Amino acid sequence: MAWNEPGNGGKDRDPWGNNGKQQGPPDLDQVIRNLSNKLSGLLGRRGSGTGGGGGLGSFGIVVGLVIALVAWVVSGFYTIGEAQRGVVLRFGNYYQTVEPGLSWKVTFIDRVFPVDVESVRSQPASGFMLTKDENLVRVEMEVQYRVLEPRDYLFNVTNADDSLHQALDSALRYVVGHSTMDDVLTVGRERVRQETRALLDEIIEPYQLGLAVLDLNFLPARPPEEVKDAFDDAIAAQEDEQRFIREAEAYAREIEPKARGQAKRLLQEAEGYKEQVALRAEGEVARFRELLPQYQLQPELTRERIYLETMEEIYSKVNKVIVDTPEGSNNMMYLPLDKLLEQSANRKTKVDPNIITSDYINGLQQQAGSDSGQAGSNSDRSSIRPTGRN
Fold it and tell me: 382: pLDDT confidence band, cut at 50, 70 and 90?
């Protein structure tokens, strides 16, 4: 039988309790009140036997406290990145520095400030600055740094990055003010950079910024636009000077080894010539010492022999022939043998000087006379001179 069937059975099963009266949707407020009463009765029965209202209140407080405690504990967990360090403050005072990873803090008591200590940061400094020689140049420099001590970086000064920027600007202006314009623009740039680095370290050391300066980049300085062309020409001339110096040094490195080799060769040749002359002189001395006893025994014969040997050696090195005239004549004949041999060579006739005899000389005399006249009549081809030997 259905629950809404007419009759007594259906009346008892009406869920809205209308019992056959006018049926309609129940009151929503009444449903909520009924559900609340059932839930209150259930919580009351689970209590310690006290009154239902008191048990419900105590249990609610405990549940609330547990939930709040769990939320408080969970809220204390935090993570520090691999490139970071965490600075923990407890009641506003420094407590510790936390390494990378998962950590826990006391919520509402501790505060954590993560600081990046691995990345390289930069701060620029630029502007028009007055040099030692009262010139105005625009200088740009950039400092590269990273955080070394997170605690000092956060709390020793108000803003460590801004303090470093001001220190760099002060150091740069001081160094530029004690340098000439040419040093800043051309040859002295490295010196300016090194002096600025040293002065910057000296300035920031007392403040303990917790920073480590890695490098300074000195960007190209520029003169005022009114004189820029003249300074460009000066820089180009200095570059040409350096190029010429390098070329000269390369040429010197190439020439010097050759010159040293030639000098060494000349020294060795001089030493060899020295030894040769010394040995030849010693040989001549030894030869004359051997001739001395013979000369003392027969002076005339020895003198004649020495004379003949000397003349033989001298005449063997010349290409001219001198012929003695017959006795009673005070003249001797000069034959241009070199010219005659040259003419014979032109006629493809080979003449051996070692086989020249008196008959051959007479034949050459007659040939020369036919070409250039009688001997003694032509001063260019022959000459008649007094004999020089008694």
Answer: very low
Report CA torsion sign: 198, 200, 205, 210.
Answer: negative
The two three-digit tokens of residue 266, written as one number: 């000349």
**Cα(103)–Cα(336) distance, rounded to whole angstroms?**
121
The residue with greater pLDDT, 42 or 345, is 345
Amino acid at 242: Q
Joined tokens for residue 101: 């990873």
Partners of residue 268 on adjacent β-strands: none
CB 209 within 8 A of CB 160: yes
Question: Tokens standing for 39?
Answer: 């839930």
To 10 degrees, the CA torsion angle through 285, 286, 290, 292? 20
Q: 319 or 280: which carries more pLDDT confidence?
A: 280
Q: Can you tell me the distance from the alpha carbon of 332 to that of 388, in angstroms, rounded to the nearest whole number?
A: 9
Per-residue confidence (pLDDT) for residue 320, from 0 to 100: 62
188 contacts 136 by C-beta, under 8 angstroms: no
Residue 99 half-sphere exposure, CB side, CA atoms within 13 Å? Answer: 0
Give the whole-angstrom CA distance, residue 148 versus residue 216.
17
Q: How far is CA 101 from CA 54, 82, 300, 360, in A?
A: 46, 7, 124, 122
Distance CA 128, CA 125 (A): 11
pLDDT digits (tens, 9 = 90+) for 33-52: 666 566 555 555 554 444 44
Q: Tell me the percentage of the chain whose pLDDT exceeds 70.
A: 67
Long-range contacts, 359-367 (Cβ 8 Å, 24+): 361/321, 361/323, 361/335, 364/335, 364/337, 364/340, 365/333, 365/335, 367/340
- What is the reported pTM? 0.46
In 3D space, the residue among 142, 98, 91, 140 whose CA is nearest the CA of residue 117 turns out to be 98
